[in-house]
């Protein structure tokens, strides 16, 4: 569901072409004029009740859909211009007398997930674009039309674009001749290595679709040209503004009195001993840091009774929640570990939260959140049962600490005045799972070193007993660096088409798609 006021279209092109642009046979003075022209057409289309009856039409009013869309390239609803793009792309193809034939692609593919493009925005079941490139290069020619009906973050569109990047193709282990012919290594009958031509350098066109408005929005941002210099400048400005406003919330004092920056804070659930009612901080009693494990049973530090997580009852606390205007009773949790860095000192440091740290947390929690935050009530359901019953979460904002909630809210406010609101808002959206209380910390021993790992349990809204709260400002800074690295690698750009709809009701003419990539297959 799209929230009113979350997105806005401003009068400044978002790092795109500011001179004359041509789109679907029409020429406009600039990209903003193009956007406004097609937004008007989309607004008229939204008034058609039959259009809204299309299966899979997203939940949202007209303003939500229009503010999110960038027509005709991207619509947060079924895209009515796909057929026109296909006709235009077909007319641009260079005629060839070559008879199309490709042997089935039969090779193992293994691609890492550390590429800046892959890391720019997380998503479940995400496929690295370089893996998809191998299929597209094998089965298509430059200018061919590729379709992905379950596009997720739009990696198929990125892959189709990167087929025109010689350096990226070389990184796949292929060779590229001066005329653009791509060679791959094969083994002949005598077991000799030979290089055979199989494709050509050149970007492919892509039509991307997903039922999820969130996915199509991410896909659009992955496949929309942005001036990397302008993006870096604006992202740095926003980051400095949020640092100036919220940086104090992530400060801690080092042993020599110097101020450090918190990298993350570990929080742990508090239980009550069933024998003596003593408060039990789960991390302190159950986690064996020396051996890198969590004990199934452990003694009560007060009465010595043998305890387990199942035997104990949670400790609860009731506070008034000004965001929803009513009291809430939630499971208690306590900060147990702070990992931080100090400018001028190598490495990272860890400490138990001291009195100053606890007072800082109390100060943050006592201050109101002045900016808008989502406070939608959690519905009853299988995935919401654990956070509701075990932790007392009743609204969306309960998934975040007050500290990270204030940063997210301030960022949203700052982005409303940015000329790159959509690109940067997409960046912030990537941090929502990492910034939440669903981020689990686990410890293990590797050889002689203690290792801490963290992650969100996929496919559910699970809040663990030991949570890791990252410094959101630093996390966004890391993602900005990834996106800048990605943008600087792109040489030229082909705008891909993004739609939000059910795949089986899309209006695509028979025999107009050259290659379809599906994940899941």
Summarize the structure.
This protein is of the alpha+beta class.
Topology:
Layout: E1 21-23, E2 26-28, H1 31-46, H2 49-52, H3 62-68, H4 82-92, H5 116-119, H6 129-139, E3 145-148, H7 155-162, H8 166-171, E4 175-176, E5 181-187, E6 193-200, E7 205-210, H9 213-222, H10 228-246, E8 251-253, E9 259-272, E10 279-281, H11 282-286, E11 287-288, E12 293-294, E13 298-299, E14 306-307, E15 313-314, E16 316-321, E17 326-331, E18 333-341, E19 349-351, H12 355-366, H13 385-391, H14 402-415, H15 421-431, E20 439-446, E21 449-456, E22 466-470, H16 472-489, E23 497-500, E24 515-516
Parallel strand pairs: 3-7, 3-24, 7-23
Antiparallel strand pairs: 1-2, 4-5, 5-6, 8-9, 9-10, 9-15, 9-18, 9-22, 11-12, 13-14, 16-17, 18-19, 20-21
Helix pairs in contact: 6-7, 10-14, 10-16, 14-15
Question: Could you name the key traits of this structure?
Answer:
alpha+beta, 7-stranded antiparallel beta sheet, 4-stranded parallel beta sheet, 16 helices
Structural features, described:
- With 521 residues, this protein is an alpha+beta fold.
- It has 16 helices and 24 strands.
- It has helices at residues 31-46, 49-52, 62-68, 82-92, 116-119, 129-139, 155-162, 166-171, 213-222, 228-246, 282-286, 355-366, 385-391, 402-415, 421-431, 472-489, and strands spanning 21-23, 26-28, 145-148, 175-176, 181-187, 193-200, 205-210, 251-253, 259-272, 279-281, 287-288, 293-294, 298-299, 306-307, 313-314, 316-321, 326-331, 333-341, 349-351, 439-446, 449-456, 466-470, 497-500, 515-516.
- Strand 9 and strand 10 form a beta hairpin.
- Helix 10 (228-246) crosses helix 14, helix 10 packs antiparallel against helix 16 (472-489) and helix 14 (402-415) runs antiparallel to helix 15.
- The chain is globular.
- It starts with 20 loop residues before the first strand and ends in a 5-residue tail after the last strand.
- The model is unreliable at 1-17 (pLDDT under 50).
